Amino acid sequence: MSAVTVARADTDTADPAGVGPGGSPSLPEHRRWERVHGLAIHTRCWPGPTGAQRTPAVVLHGLGVASRMCQPVAGRLARDRPVWAPDWAGFGHSEPPSRDLDIDGHADLLADWMGTIGVPAAVLVGVSLGSQVAAALAERYPARCARLVLGSPTVQADRRTWRQQVPRWQLEQATQSGRMRAIQLGDYARCGPRRALRTFAFALADRIEDRLPQVDAPVLTCWGTRDPLITRGWVEELAARAPDGRLAVLPGAVHALSHEHPLAFARVIEHFVDSRPAREQPADRRPPRRGAA
């Protein structure tokens, strides 16, 4: 495992007017719906430059929110590759399932969604709880994962109780920009408190650290030094558990890397992808489900 430290991220924020961080223009996004498992799944997508041949990226949002939190980093990554940011079933503008899905359930649906949109394999980028879904997808469907990026990966092993999480989430709220808080309020209202709480209960029961030894793809774990939810020791442990893992430390960055620090987050992703050669895709193995739905 190796560590990568990037330039400070304190002023690296998304521009709400549609201009990318650092003054670079954001690429236009498209919105589309696909029917998967009988549900209409909403996706924001960026086609990338004309003729782009690089492996697409799939960016997965965190708990309660939806793909809007991924727009800043997705637009940056789309400078040289197609990027897809779906809303999970029951979140954002995607239809809800008949029962709430656990982590494996979301991974199974997203694996089939990738087949529906014609993306056989991608750089999977998870943010917060999205890291847990991305890791489950990479473990259960190795052929779908070219590389795995875990941004602010939850839930830390020694903090898996409601009593431990609630005060830390309150601290995390204080680190958010006004725009991020507005996105969160709107998205939480759309999914509803019952689904958000039920999904978080599934996240507390999930053991991401047990998945990573089974992930064949190169893995990058990313941590911001102002993240109150997880520690550096936790992301170091995750990187060490992966057969091919490395760590990126973002000084000054908070938990919501994809929205609050898109430039720094995109830089470490791009460096990681460019420094790891392409590999032959293994067959999917779809191991038994790790949690009850």
Automatic annotation (TrEMBL):
GO molecular function, one term: hydrolase activity
Annotated AB hydrolase-1 domain residues: 58-171
Region of interest (Disordered), ranges: 1-29
Superkingdom of origin: Bacteria
Keyword field contains Hydrolase: yes
Key words, A-Z: Hydrolase
Membrane-spanning parts: none
Protein name: Alpha/beta hydrolase
Lineage: Bacteria, Bacillati, Actinomycetota, Nitriliruptoria, Egibacterales
